[in-house]
Specification:
about 150 residues, 5 helices, single chain, mainly alpha, Ferritin
Length: about 150
């Protein structure tokens, strides 16, 4: 990418942050699904893991279209998300309520990351993708919150 504009660099940074969050979610939800005994919840988390991978692909494709070819993210290095998913290892040995709480916290953090991204200047097509993805994550958050409350 020769002489990228300031706006493009900001958009790239914003999308990379979201991509890291999606990688964390994809991996974490897969582990939660593996630990879930309830088949409905297991299927939900497997689907969410795949959805996060799909969202990641969409955002990486946007970056590729803008000439960014080195999109090899490994997940978040930020303390909040690392702490959330590190808690997964402890939660795997406990019941579904703790796993659902962890998933709820992760979805809430992901939603906050999307909200932060949407507060920035973004090209309209990028904004539209993030709004759609954010709405899905909000829906997942609501589902997980309700499932957790039902097991309280």
């Amino acid at each position: 990418m020769a002489n990228p504009s300031k706006d493009l660099l900001e958009t790239e940074g914003t999308l990379r942050t979201i991509i890291e969050t999606l990688i964390d979610g994809q991996n974490g939800f897969q582990k939660i699904a593996d630990a879930m005994k309830d088949e409905t919840l297991k299927q939900h988390f497997l689907a969410e893991s795949l959805k996060r991978a799909e969202f990641r692909g969409e955002l990486e494709n946007i970056l590729h279209q803008e000439g960014v070819h080195d999109v090899h993210e490994t997940g978040s290095a930020s303390g909040t998300f690392v702490r959330l998913w590190t808690g997964l290892e402890k939660a795997l040995g406990v019941g579904p309520h703790a796993l659902l709480q962890l998933a709820e916290d992760a979805d809430r953090t992901a939603k906050e990351r999307y909200d932060d991204a949407l507060d920035k200047f973004l090209p309209a097509p990028v904004r539209e993708v993030l709004i759609r993805q954010s709405a899905h994550i909000a829906s997942s958050l609501m589902y997980v919150s309700e499932a957790r409350d039902a097991r309280a």
